Amino acid sequence: MSATWHPAGSLAELTEDQPLTASVAGKEIGVYKVAGAYYALEDVCPHAHALLSQGFVEGDEIECPLHGAKFHIPTGRCTKEPGGRDLRSYPVRVEGDTVLVALD
Ligand code: FES
Questions:
Q1: pLDDT tens, position by position, 37-94
Q2: The domain that contains 45 carries what CATH number?
Q3: Is 74 inside a domain boundary?
């Protein structure tokens, strides 16, 4: 089955320092740019309710704004507690000025 791509936002809103906070088909998704590549991760921190894309980018990691858990952006792996578990990651592609994410 081929993936369904959903628009997540405009490329102009996404920089290496500033992830994109998106609501895609009812799901909160954070879109990141690291070393020129794009990544999409589930955005609600598994520890409590914070949006990770509103946190702090440090190299290839995102730090939760609430209690400081860290996740590796390219893989979603939890690298510092209290994240609790790894994040789900989703395929991303760019078409023109639009960032697209596949959720299935
Ligand atoms: S809500 Fe993210 S570390 Fe607590």
A1: 999 999 999 999 999 999 999 999 999 999 999 999 999 999 999 999 999 999 999 9
A2: 2.102.10.10
A3: yes
Ligand 1: residue of 44, 64, 87 to mutate (most ligand atoms within 8 A of CB) is 64
DSSP per residue over 42-94, as a string?
Answer: E-B-SSSS-BGGGSEEETTEEE-TTT--EEETTT--EEETT--SPPPEE-EEE
Provide the domain count of the chain.
1
Q: Is 67 in the pocket of ligand 1 (CB under 6 A)?
A: yes
